[in-house]
Amino acid sequence: MFKKILIANRGEIALRIIRTCKEMDIKTVAIYSTADRDSLHVRFADEAVCIGPPQSAESYLNVPRIMAAVEITDADAVHPGYGFLAENASFAEVCKEYGIKFIGPAPEHIRAMGDKITAKETMIKAGVPCIPGSEGLLEDYKEGQQLAKKIGYPVILKATAGGGGKGMRIVWEESQFENQWETARREAKAAFGNDGIYMEKFIEEPRHIEVQVAGDQFGKACHLSERDCSIQRRHQKLVEESPSPFMTPELREKMGEAAVKACLAIGYEGVGTVEFLVDKYRNFYFMEMNTRIQVEHTVTEEVIDFDLIKEQIKIAAGIPISGKNYFPEMHAIECRINAEDVYNDFRPSPGKINSFHSPKGHGVRVDTHVYAGYNISPYYDSMIAKLIVRARTRDEAITKMERALDEFIVEGIKTTIPFHQRLMRNEQFQKGDFHTGFLNTWDFKNVEL
Q: Is 292 a catalytic residue?
């Protein structure tokens, strides 16, 4: 087992990793920018190293500085968390070259799944259902138009190096194609330095359902059931839950088997997530694989009573997994609490937190790195906390989430709490009748509490 792990991340996920490491009797090293010197992950780590100014490029994305911190603290492993360098194959290679264990998959697996075209080709060979579309990158918009006629409109253009909705455009009819093609390419080039575009059939009113997976160094893989992440705004997840209210036992088994196939096809090592789009007829299609821990991993932990961070560390240390597939025994819902003004187009709301009271009680969990007096920086992601509730049924979980949200007090900045309060009282959400476009048709601002 590792003696000391450096956490190449910040905020709540860094603190989450520190907690598990302490329980495993592993020393921890926190890295931080000058903007994060007062963060709880810095306070609770055994050691902390400042690696630069607030800008991510000069701190959390600066590989030489991170590796210098590894060297001066004599860490023997690096946990990348999520975001930043978590899916950076080059960083994983640097760790390998220096004899430092990267707690995650091998660089070749990160590359294979990080490039959407390669990932799709791999999944087709493995027998995992994929959305009809281009076999590779489109050469020009004319090739795309010809293919769109064959598979039928609407279609969606996607950046091969994309993520977070960047470089993604829906084309509803042929007359829109050229304009949307140019827009997608420009956005992809600006965001990723790669303007490669591919195309898929656009699935209308889909559910976004992902399957948690784990694979070890001995060729074994398993799934740990699904999460429904369909409540999204501009392709950014706001609420996640497990099990999905749309799922049937038969569909759960099929999607679990497909996710395990995906892992076995590449000999995947580590914890990851296979993401699917599911249409209204319950046909499912591979979308992408995230080769890291997810923000919403907590939902899975609550429904199967399983520490996924601990599993990550054990796999990286060469300990075999059981190979057992897990199924949800409870119902859990997670609301992302972001520092955003929901009444002003979810505009970021950095600043000082004057008062902070997190909810308590049976089946209530809050993962956060902030507290009263903490300053929310404008430099990073706006998420300040994750509120997770667990209950025996979905109805009970929604009721518990309502109570917990009412008890959650954050003063000094704007947060997404008012949005979540209204969502939990929405009749369609309560019935489980929603899809990824749900928030495009629901005006929560006019809903009274």
A: yes
